[in-house]
Amino acid sequence: MPIIFREPHLDYLRQLEQLQSRMDRVFQNAFGLERSPWRVGVYPLVNISEDHDHIYVRAELAGVNPADLEITVQDNSLILRGERKIPTEEKQVNYHRRERESGFFRRVLALPARVQADKVEATCKDGILTIQLAKPEETKPRKIEVKVA
Amino acid sequence: MTEHELKVKAKEEAPAKAEHVRPGRVFLPAVDIFETPEALVLTADMAGVPADKVTVDLKENHLVITGEVAPPMGAGETMLEQEYYTGDFQREFHLGSLIDQAKIEATMKEGVLRLILPKVEKVKPRKIEVKTA
Q1: Given an 8 Å threshold on Cβ–Cβ distance, is B36 in contact with A94?
Q2: So where are chain B's domains?
Q3: Pairwise pLDDT comparison (B56 vs B38), residue with the higher score
């Protein structure tokens, strides 16, 4: 059943996802477990990383045309919407295996920090989507020099 | 067609048959295989594999496709939240029909490998006339 998101619901979903990732961490720490592979997630799965200036959100989206992707940044949520199309063969063909799926996806992600909504860049390369989000100046780590009095 | 929502499918790890030289995990790519009268067509999802890192190896009717992934993160980045793991892709197939090795076509686009394996033209039955001496 697809969930239709409207603005007021955004926050609940975000909190839910945060709770889920917190629970995962508890289990990871307590039992040394990795995320169980059968755990249900929301497509697409993402990896979030950071460096000094940016936050990076990456997703494996093989075969997704960048034109079919829609990325929205709102406060500190990132909304990923899109469609994966698999062209149908014109001729009558005989399938031996059909493991690849086509369809729609929609995901609301909580970003670990505030970002500058006007400084977001998204690139698609070899089926990997990378969204680069700039951290605001005030949250960047700052080095403080200690002066000798 | 009704609107179909994509579900998460866990990446399946490839069974280790021999020791791997490259560190990291190896996954099985999801594939579609279909057959036309002329050829066998294989498509495989290999996200993160650049075109020059794909190897297609065919010996007799044993096909091996391998893809090496580019580093998943830039230098100096720290992972905050990891939902999927990255690694190379490898999968083996036993093909039913003989393939014309010289005419194999492989294309890589948006992390999807498309392999066209044309079948060897069947040897036409030949009638041999017996001449009377």
Answers
A1: yes
A2: 24-72+82-118
A3: B56
